[in-house]
Write a structure and sequence with these properties.
Strand content: 25-35%
Structural class: alpha/beta
Distance between the termini: 5 Å
CATH topology: Metallo-beta-lactamase, Chain A
Strand order of the largest sheet: 6-5-4-3-2-1-14
Number of domains: 1
CATH architecture: 4-Layer Sandwich
Shape: globular
Number of helices: 8
Radius of gyration: 18 Å
Largest sheet: 7 strands, mixed
Helix content: 10-25%
Order of helices and strands: EEEHEHHEHEEEEEHEHHEHEE
Protein name: cAMP phosphodiesterase class-II:metallo-beta-lactamase superfamily protein
Pfam family, one: Lactamase_B_2
Length: about 260
């Protein structure tokens, strides 16, 4: 299985794209601005969108995706998310004011958009791939995702504060290869990070100490103006043997 990083920044500008990861050719995790760089034919092949939560940087391109592929698709795109996130989409995005309700287009009986609830602990299987929603702590209801190819697993945190149930779930993954974990703010913005339920280098490193060694750990969702500082703080404070890399647009993780 291949996981392609379409976007992984905590902001825009200077080539930065917000969060979107592609599994194979028909599944994406979050629909941030990175999704917009795919060719039209590849956009049209997306059948499933799994959302970590409904904040704008993670859903920005979902409405535009549906509008773009509508003329060429004959089956709906299924959006998997918590009931809270789906309610937000219905109430605030696909409401005929901000954007058309694609559950009713092109016909109420044949909508291009289909919702499927996926709460913490739920699993969804596509061929050999199994996705499981894991608990995280953010300012709105949110989940992380475990992606299991049958040979190895990748865990993507989405947006989260330090959260014991998340770390317990990560530690329980018996075939964990890669952890993609957010660190949105540098240590000098610890108060803002706590208020917005994001991690800082100091708090992430404290939590990583409980995990086994040898993991491939990728850092995502860095704020653009501080991304170099965040990585310096992480690598400068990391214990010996802990290998941390910044997740980059264009990265491909095979598992």
């Amino acid at each position: 299985m291949e996981l392609q990083v379409l976007g992984c920044s905590g902001g825009i500008g200077a080539g930065n794209r917000t969060t979107s990861l592609r599994l194979g050719d028909n599944v994406v995790i979050d629909a941030g601005t990175g999704l917009a760089d795919l060719p039209l034919a590849e956009l049209a092949r997306i059948d499933h969108v799994f959302l970590t939560h409904a904040h704008l940087d993670h859903i920005a391109c979902l409405p535009l995706l549906l509008d773009t592929v509508a003329p060429v698709r004959t089956t709906p795109v299924t959006v998997h998310a918590s009931q809270s996130a789906l309610d937000t989409l219905q109430r605030h995005i696909f409401n005929w004011q901000v954007w058309p309700d694609f559950t009713q287009i092109p016909h109420p009986d044949r909508g291009l958009l289909r919702y499927e609830v996926m709460e913490r602990g739920d699993t969804f299987t596509l061929g050999e791939l199994t996705l499981t929603a894991l608990p995280v702590l953010h300012t709105v209801p949110a989940v992380a995702y475990r992606m299991d190819s049958g040979k190895a697993s990748v865990v993507f945190s989405g947006d989260t504060d330090d959260h014991a149930p998340f770390w317990q779930a990560v530690a329980a993954v018996d075939n964990l290869q890669t952890l993609i974990i957010e660190t949105a703010f540098a240590d000098h913005e610890a108060a803002l990070a706590r208020a917005s339920r994001h991690l800082t280098p100091q708090r992430l490193l404290a939590a990583l100490g409980a995990l086994p060694g040898g993991l491939d750990i990728r850092i995502t969702h860095l704020k653009p103006f501080d991304h170099e500082l965040i990585m310096r703080e992480l690598t400068g404070q990391a214990s010996a043997g802990l290998q941390l890399k910044r997740l980059l647009q264009g990265d491909v993780i095979r598992f």
